[in-house]
Structures are given as structure tokens and as C-alpha cells.
């Protein structure tokens, strides 16, 4: 159970049923491996819109992820982390165990929906401009830096990917889904865990390669996932893209183009967005294009360093934040 403000909020199964109109499909906003997420309206001092994550307890490991999320989110507070409001552990109307998390609602959905929108989605076509992508990247790096080095207990997220990054009404990014999170003990940056457990952590394409070899969970595993995420955000390609052959992945694809051919592989939507503004003065246009190219090369370079196959060669989260802020400052002068 978590608190909202200073008072502890208790919520029942029946309240959640009412808040979601009986877990109506119209309120379903996401489905994951361990459950479904609904938009709900709770009657707390008026009406409050929330996200309600219902755990699928038939799925092996679901109860463990519920406990992990409660423990992780109970002690951490950061502007770029999704806040847990409360939790519900009860029984449903059939007498079956029922577990749910009540989280703050994110108006603009997930980064996944913005990077790879479904053609048949009811909402209009959405696109993120360069400044928005850089700001989101800073938000995510700031969240990781807090989790790894500034939270009461160091935490490794273990499942960083676009669908676990949510955007609020101001397009500020919040890292969510701590069901796979691991606590680090003492002052170390890693701890030992069995290879069989590590092998199932994370998501294909984002999981650090050393985990598949039975290596220990570490903060550098999250940095790898961040690097892949960064490359995806600025190329528009998933880590395992249908255009890649067996010997090619996103890191290799980008590295082959870096730095001279970078503009050939960045997300076409991103280039189109920056071309909307017509600049008549040729010198001013060249200066703007040069700075945009400089920014993209800097961001891609960070992504490549973070997704290095060797953990010791990856960047520290604090350094990532500083370099990404420097990129944003260059953009501010464009």
C-alpha cells in the first residue's frame, strides 16, 4: 500500500470495478506479459483519472512482479518515474485472488505508440520532433541515474523499452513497469544471480548481451538498454528490424553509417519535421542544418557507446545526462 500525500489511500476490488466500468474494453489502454492496464476514474476528493494495472495471476511470475513493483515504487520518488498511488490485494467476485496497482495516469500514452503508431489507431498520426526526442532521452537518462546512484537503494530496472516509457500531458517522460526490477546490495553496481533467471529478464533486442551468458545483473545492463532505445528513437527502427539479416542488428546497422552517413539512416519522420520551416537565407539554413547534424551525430554516438557489447566500455548515467543536456543547448541555438 502506498500513500498519496500524507494519507494512506485504501482501495477495494469493487472500487476498481466501478472506476473502470467493469474493466470495460473501452478503458483498456495497454496489455503486457503480466497483465492489463485500464484507465479509471477514482472518486477521491472529486474525480481523479488513474491507470489501473491488473495482474494476470495465471501467468507464472506475476505475483513476483507485483511484489517487485510495490517494493521498488514504495521508496523512490523522481519526476521521471511513474508514481504508484496505491495497491489492491483482494479477491474478485468469483473468489479468485486479485492484485492491482493504481498509478498516475499518463495522458500521452507510451513512447512506443509515438515511435511506431498503428495504422488503424483511432488517434491521428503523431510524430515527435527533434527537440521532443532529445528531451525524452534526457528524462529517461535522469530516471536511470536516480535509480542507479541516488535512490535510497540502488535499483536496476531490467526492462527498459519504449512501451515502458510513458508521456504525460507536457510530454515529460516517466519510466514505468518495475516488475523485473532488481535491488543492488551495498555499494556495488551489480550482484550475482543465476543464469536461468537472468535469461528471462528484459525484452528481446533490449536486454544486455552479457545477461544471456549468465552474467550478473548490473546498472550497465540498463545502460545497454538505454543505448538501444536511443538508437531506436532517432532511426525509427526497432532493435530487431525486419530489414536486418541474421548478422545485422540495430547497433551494427548504425555503426556502419556513423558518422558520415548518419543523415541517411535517421528517422525520415524526423527529417521531414525539421524541413517544415523554410529558411530563405542560405547561410542561415546551412548553419541550422549543420547544428542539427551535429546534434544527431552526438546523440547517435551516445547511443553507440551505451550499447557497446562490453559493459566496461559503456557510459555512466551521469555522463549521459550531461552530454544529452549539451545537445539540447545546441538545439536551443538553432
UniProtKB/TrEMBL annotation:
Q: According to its UniProt record, which reaction does this protein catalyse?
A: L-seryl-[protein] + ATP = O-phospho-L-seryl-[protein] + ADP + H(+); L-threonyl-[protein] + ATP = O-phospho-L-threonyl-[protein] + ADP + H(+)
* Matches recorded under InterPro entries: Kinase-like_dom_sf, LRR_receptor-like_kinase, Prot_kinase_dom, Protein_kinase_ATP_BS, Ser/Thr_kinase_AS
Membrane topology field = Single-pass membrane protein
Where would I find the Protein kinase domain in this sequence? 23-331
UniProt keyword annotation of Zinc present = no
Q: Which GO terms describe its molecular function?
A: ATP binding; protein serine/threonine kinase activity
Q: What class of enzyme is it?
A: transferase
Q: Which family does it belong to?
A: Belongs to the protein kinase superfamily.
| Name this polypeptide is given | Receptor kinase-like protein Xa21
Gene that specifies this protein: LOC105054798
